[in-house]
Amino acid sequence: MVLEAVRAGVAEASRVLRDCLGSAHGPAEGVRRCFQAAAGEISESGYALGCPVASIVLDMLEEESALAEGWHASFEEWRVMYRDALVAAGFRPLRAVTLAWIITSSLRGL
After folding, report:
1. Which helix (H) or strand (E) holds 50?
2. How far is it, in rounded angstroms, from Cα 28 to Cα 3?
3. Tell me: the pLDDT tens digits for 85-106?
4. Residue 57, class by beta-carbon neighbours within 10 Å (0-12 exposed, 13-18 middle, 19+ buried)?
5. Mean per-residue pLDDT over the chain, rounded
6. CA torsion, points 26, 27, 30, 35, in degrees to nearest 10?
7. Taking the CB of the first residue and of the last residue of the chain, which one, N or C, has fewer CB atoms within 10 A?
8. Helix, coil or strand: residue 49
9. What does the alpha-carbon distance between residue 33 and residue 35 come to, in Å, rounded to a whole number?
10. Which of 75, 80, 77 is nearest to 99 (CA)?
């Protein structure tokens, strides 16, 4: 049950990220939209909602659990989305990877 809830949260966060990056005029605007969407959701929930995976996984003891694997996969998916948007905008691939890590860490708290 917890795994399905996390998967649903990840799917929704991924959809919002794709929409924000896809509708933006460049990666800076896309990142700004992603952060604004996340801030709005957190504020509207009375600060009860946040990253759909971090709070659960951080409390887990088992590194090899299905939840931990899902956590790693979700963050990788988000980093790839940011990286691809940056590369498409003309950033060198290595720079895009670094920036994608920074963006994901800033938003999701790695």
Report:
1. none
2. 32
3. 999 999 999 999 999 999 998 8
4. buried
5. 83
6. -150
7. N
8. coil
9. 5
10. 80
Query: Does pLDDT of 110 surpass 50?
Result: no
User: What is the rounded distance in angstroms from the CA atom of residue 20 to the CA atom of residue 93?
Assistant: 21
- Torsion of the alpha carbons at 22, 34, 104 and 68, rounded to the nearest 10: -90
Token pair 């691939």 in the structure block, residue: 93
**C-alpha pair distances (Å), 99 with each of 32, 70, 82, 103:** 14, 22, 8, 6
Cβ 89 vs Cβ 27: under 8 Å: yes
Identity at 8, one-letter amino acid code: A
How far is residue 55's CA from residue 37's CA, in Å, rounded to a whole number?
A: 19
Question: What one-letter code names the amino acid at 1?
Answer: M
Rounded to two decimals, the pTM is 0.80
Distance CA 102, CA 56 (A): 22
